[in-house]
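Holo prediction. Input below; ligand is S-adenosylmethionine.
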Amino acid sequence: MAGILYLVATPIGNLEDISARALRILSEVDCVAAEDTRVSGGLLHHFGIKKPLVSYYEQNKHIRGPALLERLLQGESIALISDAGTPAISDPGADLTRAAIDAGIQVTPIPGPCAFVSALIASGLSTERFVFEGFLPRHHGERKRRLQSLAGEERTLIFYEAPHRLPETLADMAEVLGPQRKAVLARELTKLHEEYLRLTLAEAAELYRQQQPRGEYVLIVAGGESRRSPPPDLQALQDRLEKLLEQGMSRKQAAKTLAGQYGLPVKSVYELGLK
Ligand code: SAM
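Structure of the complex:
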């Protein structure tokens, strides 16, 4: 009989957040697959768990994945954990999960801390409908294109971002999603310096123009205006369009950006630009 692949959530900072079930599963499995064996070794040591650790990360997943599947097929049970939080969310765990399912192996989640869920529920922004976008593309052009595709999204938007890329990402967000859009920067969740910065995108971009971001962040951005809302102030739209054109943006690009923000067809904004 094949073993079970357990996807075990671990704390995102505060070690008290580990569940009793997570501790039991980690003690019972044959081995633990972890992104960084030093980080996870520390966690297991803290809870007095002695288990063989196998590294499984982005750069070795193509070799390590099949080896782990082989062990599962031989009947071993494996717990997959990420550096922090829920595995398979913005980490290579998703690949191993898919491969295990394809190989007919049972996959069992052991739920627990997840950075984006914690950030969202305490953000004060709508939790009724939301989209998790994970990390934006690193390349500037691609990042802007992704944001443009999200400009008209009415659901709350959730992003992960590395601190050194945060200033640039916030500046792009303010430009593409609109400077007045509400955002919450959830920082160092469950840790000593946990903090929620509730700002507009313009304010957030300005803040990190002046100071360096420190620690880990989840960014929650309010959804765009409903497309069913009353027609926008045409003069304001025209002013913004002129500004973007003056800044050197092509008419097509400016129309796309504003159409998303105002919930209007790109063609109508483009035609306004021609006038
Ligand atoms: N799989 C994990 C999860 O969803 O819980 C997240 C893994 S992802 C590689 C790491 C990102 O999660 C960080 O760059 C940051 O955006 C976010 N994150 C993790 N821990 C955090 C914390 N304590 N406070 C704020 N953000 C955190």
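The domain at 116-221 is CATH 3.30.950.10 (Methyltransferase, Cobalt-precorrin-4 Transmethylase; Domain 2). That is the main takeaway for now.
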